[in-house]
UniProtKB/TrEMBL annotation:
<protein>
    <submittedName>
        <fullName>MBL fold metallo-hydrolase</fullName>
    </submittedName>
</protein>
<dbReference type="GO" id="GO:0016787">
    <property type="term" value="F:hydrolase activity"/>
</dbReference>
<comment type="similarity">
    <text>Belongs to the metallo-beta-lactamase superfamily.</text>
</comment>
<feature type="domain" description="Metallo-beta-lactamase">
    <location>
        <begin position="45"/>
        <end position="279"/>
    </location>
</feature>
<dbReference type="GO" id="GO:0046872">
    <property type="term" value="F:metal ion binding"/>
</dbReference>
<comment type="function">
    <text>Counteracts the endogenous Pycsar antiviral defense system. Phosphodiesterase that enables metal-dependent hydrolysis of host cyclic nucleotide Pycsar defense signals such as cCMP and cUMP.</text>
</comment>
<keyword id="KW-0378">Hydrolase</keyword>
<keyword id="KW-0479">Metal-binding</keyword>
<dbReference type="Pfam" id="PF00753">
    <property type="entry name" value="Lactamase_B"/>
</dbReference>
<dbReference type="InterPro" id="IPR036866">
    <property type="entry name" value="RibonucZ/Hydroxyglut_hydro"/>
</dbReference>
<dbReference type="InterPro" id="IPR051013">
    <property type="entry name" value="MBL_superfamily_lactonases"/>
</dbReference>
<dbReference type="InterPro" id="IPR001279">
    <property type="entry name" value="Metallo-B-lactamas"/>
</dbReference>
<keyword id="KW-0862">Zinc</keyword>
């Protein structure tokens, strides 16, 4: 296994290969996610990352949507979720089908890391039954016991998860080691998931309880997959956080604002760090036909 020194921490890290794809997209008025944006609906890809680790193989960070989302939101109360966030998805655009086109079978995926438990991030989870699921404990604890109405408000649909998820999946806190994300990183509680510096979870609270991002290095770049801590690179770049109306679907509005500002500070302190929001058109293709590499 090859390693290299992280310029920020002076510690060895294992570089990985990173592919950015999307599995479907939803529609929202732009102003909700970008303060001062248009009233017209904008498309937001359900991005997921496919990571190739030199010894652990293929790893997913989130999964995007699947056809199960439509099936499970056909009736109340979950249909409210579907009406508020209209979803566009073809079968060819699901994560499992896209990976197959790249020669990556479902059984080749050894791990699926979930950033949080909103439906657009766990929608394809059942398509990878042989994978080991890793997740932040606080994120699952916040939704696992919710009834249908409260689950709908929290953006969680339990039926999207594999059977016996609670027994088979592993909280990242159980085995990961404490990690230093580097000078200038304004977040505490980061964890080295595999003990080799390749994938470091970064707590990004606010949008969803327990949400994490994933810090990694490729051969060319240092990347933070920031999940939904921002909905776009533009919002971070121009300091345009969501409209207050977006707070209706947030776990903690104050925590979101704090996380958003910390991301901006981190970007200023480390301009070479690439921050990738899960729904950003700068990095994710809408129709699932383009694979982007960093």
């Amino acid at each position: 296994m090859s390693t290299r020194m992280n310029r920020t921490t002076d510690r060895p890290t294992v570089p990985v290969e990173l592919l950015l794809l999307s599995a479907g997209y939803c529609l929202h008025p732009e102003f909700v996610t970008l303060r001062g944006g248009s009233m017209r609906p904008a498309a937001y890809p359900a991005g997921f990352a496919c990571i190739r680790h030199p010894s652990r193989g293929w790893i997913l960070f989130d999964t995007g949507y699947s056809a199960r989302f439509r099936e499970l939101t056909a009736s109340l109360p979950y249909s409210l979720y579907r009406r508020l966030t209209p979803v566009r998805l073809s079968e060819e655009a699901t994560a499992v089908r896209q990976l197959a086109k790249l020669g990556i079978g479902a059984k080749d995926v050894g791990y699926v890391i979930l950033s949080h438990f909103h439906a657009d991030h766990i929608g394809g989870a059942r398509d990878f039954p042989d994978a080991r699921f890793l997740y932040p404990q606080a994120a699952y604890d916040a939704v696992r016991a919710l009834g249908p109405v409260r689950a709908t408000r929290a953006g969680f649909i339990a039926g999207l998860l594999p059977d016996a998820f609670a027994d088979a999946a592993t909280p990242i806190e159980r085995e990961a080691q404490a990690a230093d994300p580097g000078e200038g990183a304004p977040f505490q509680g980061c964890l080295d998931l595999f003990g080799d510096g390749s994938l470091i979870s970064v707590p990004l609270p606010g949008h969803a309880a327990g949400q994490i991002g994933l810090l990694l290095s490729t051969a060319n770049s240092r990347v933070l997959l920031c999940a939904d801590a921002s909905w776009s690179s533009r919002a971070l770049r121009e300091n345009r956080p969501p409209h207050p109306a977006a707070g209706l679907v947030m776990h903690d509005r104050a925590a979101y604002r704090d996380t958003f500002e910390r991301l901006r500070r981190w970007q200023a302190a480390d301009p070479k760090l690439i921050i990738v929001p899960s729904h950003c058109r700068d990095y994710f293709d809408l129709d699932g036909k383009e694979v982007r590499r960093l």
